[in-house]
Amino acid sequence: MRAFVTGANGFVGTHVVRALLAEGTEVRALVREVSDLRNLQGLDVELVYGDLRDGERLAPLLRGCDELYHVAALYSTRLEDGPLMYEVNVQGTKHILRAALANGVRHVVHTSTIGTIGRPADGSLPTEATPFNLWDTASDYVKSKYLGEQAALAMAQEGLPVVVVHPTAPVGAYDLKPTSTGQRIVDYLHGKLPSFAPGGINHCAVRDVAQGHLLAARRGRVGERYILGHAAGNLQLADFVALMAEISGIRVLLPRMPLRSRLRSLWRRAGETGHRPLALTCDPTKAIRELDLPQTPLRAAFAEAVAWFIEHGYVRG
């Protein structure tokens, strides 16, 4: 069996590639000429060069592939990158999925983000059934990922066997950039209190997220969405700090105002203004139940990330 992986050199993508290779699947990886390929060094992967925006060149690249894992996306917080994110995350998604349909690919997984899962008005944990209701406050990245996800689900109606996955905050090795999650860990290791969504963030071992992609391809229901997260992964800032202190031996002081009081204040203000405080928590029960998503203990995932960042020179002193 041969799998085609976009974004194979990225944090989640390299773990998807490694999971595929571990089970004996051949991997063909789409990369750009300017891609950083360090995460793929030493791996038995067939590299093909191209750009998601160049739709005409994609179909020939997928010939002979049984599966497609579309992990690639453009992420940026710069306003000037907004148009490019729509080109890559929306139009690029349409291009690669149409190429998969033209080649009769049997299993397709489209990687979205936890950011496109809506937030219940009562503050309860959202699931895949919670409609996206954050358009007015969402970033261009989240909006572009939402539109790309909708394009993928629409193609399921055209006969493409696509499943959509929503990774939460992945934690582990090979976080080269690093991601926003990895940057929080690096900041903490430098003795800084990291930025953190006031409503909390769900964390999950990146290896479990990668395995969730493979499970979604083989066990997921076509046209369905699955949150790839950890049942015990909803962390508030205080939980994150406590976990990092236990693993690293470094203690960073929290603000004087108790966290619970801060959260109550945020939700009270949300009721007055109609704007929900930023939260990336969730209920990943569906993926755990239907896909048998692994649940590596968070301490092990964070310990792996800490060790990798230290070993690779991300931490000074």
Task: Write structural notes for this entry.
- This protein has a domain at 2-175 and 204-233 and 282-296: NAD(P)-binding Rossmann-like Domain (Rossmann fold).
- 41% of the residues lie in helices and 14% in strands.
- The protein contains 10 helices and 10 strands.
- A 7-stranded parallel beta sheet has the order 3-2-1-4-5-6-9, sandwiched between helices. It has a 3-stranded mixed beta sheet with strand order 7-8-10.
Approximate shape: globular
Alpha-carbon distance between the two ends: 46 Å
CATH hierarchy class name of the domain at 2-175 and 204-233 and 282-296: Alpha Beta
Q: How many strands in all? A: 10
Largest sheet: 7 strands, parallel
Task: Walk me through the topology.
Blueprint: E1 2-6, H1 11-22, E2 26-31, E3 46-49, H2 55-61, E4 67-70, H3 82-102, E5 107-111, H4 140-156, E6 162-167, E7 169-171, H5 180-189, E8 201-205, H6 206-219, E9 225-228, E10 234-235, H7 237-248, H8 259-273, H9 285-291, H10 298-311
Parallel strand pairs: 1-2, 1-4, 2-3, 4-5, 5-6, 6-9, 7-8
Antiparallel strand pairs: 8-10
